[in-house]
Design brief:
The protein is of the alpha/beta class. The chain has four helices and eight strands, in the order H-E-E-E-H-E-H-H-E-E-E-E. The protein is globular.
Length: about 140
């Protein structure tokens, strides 16, 4: 009984550890995300559902969502992505990999993907599409409070 009391006390003391934020994002054939801002709470699990609502194939108009750590230089990160075709336009160097909080697969029209992650610190987490040339338009900020 004492063990059950301790578990119950932990649930009451840390409800955010079991809370979940569900976010939805779409990308289209005009290289646009439907939202430039998203919000979550530090320590809460986030489920991000991403759907490419266009019709063009991945080789012509691929989209993904890459969530970066606060303070990451988006242009510098995106520049490394252009040469990473064989890795879904995600750079493989250690510095770049360390900057990624989470990412979806590269999708073509009609495809979708879901990712789960837990941002641990408050801040402004940039998110971008890393398909070559897309980050200039397809970017936003996940604000974690």
């Amino acid at each position: 009984m004492k063990k059950l009391s301790l578990i119950f006390a932990a649930l009451i003391a840390a409800p955010s550890a079991f809370a979940e934020t569900k976010l939805e994002l779409t990308g289209n054939d005009q290289m646009q995300f439907n939202a430039k801002t998203l919000e979550a709470k530090a320590g809460e699990s986030v489920t991000l559902s991403f759907k490419h609502i266009g019709t063009l194939p991945v080789v012509a108009m691929g989209h993904n969502v890459v969530i970066l750590k606060p303070g990451t230089s988006v242009p510098a990160f995106a520049a490394k992505c252009a040469s990473a075709k064989d890795n879904g336009y995600l750079p493989t160097d250690e510095e770049s990999k360390a900057a990624v909080v989470a990412h979806t697969k590269l999708l073509g029209g009609g495809q979708s993907d879901e990712i789960k992650f837990t941002p641990t610190e408050p801040g402004a987490y940039p998110y971008i599409c890393t398909f070559p040339g897309h980050f200039a338009i397809m970017q936003g900020v996940l604000t974690v409070k």
